[in-house]
Amino acid sequence: MDYLIYTYLQEGRADEAARDVSDLKGMTGISGASFKIGYAGNAMPVRLAIETRDWATAAQLTPTPSPRRRSRRSCGGRARSASCVP
Asked: Residue ranges of the chain with pLDDT lower than 70?
């Protein structure tokens, strides 16, 4: 659905993108516990607001909680940086 919203916006079909983002808000049983779902669920309303230059809506968006994704390469091993501490 995330890529569909992106496609609609790139084709100038903002009304269809807005409809699908609105439908997303009404969906039940979807959890941001998965990184992919959390990312897409947050990205779609942001893309819609930015692509349509709706700055008032963009300023009011709040992220849906989703797990932090950490790279083993950047946070693994013996040395850990402050950015890797939850």
From this structure: 31-32, 66-86
- CA dihedral of 24, 30, 32, 38, whole degrees rounded to 10: -40
Residues in the chain: 86
Number of domains in the chain: 1
**Is the pTM value of this prediction over 0.70?**
no
DSSP state of 84: G
What is the rounded radius of gyration, in angstroms, for the C-alpha atoms of the chain? 16
- What residues contact 72, with CB distance under 8 A and at least 6 apart? none
Domain that holds residue 36: 2-84
Q: Rounded CA gap, 6 and 25, in Å?
A: 17
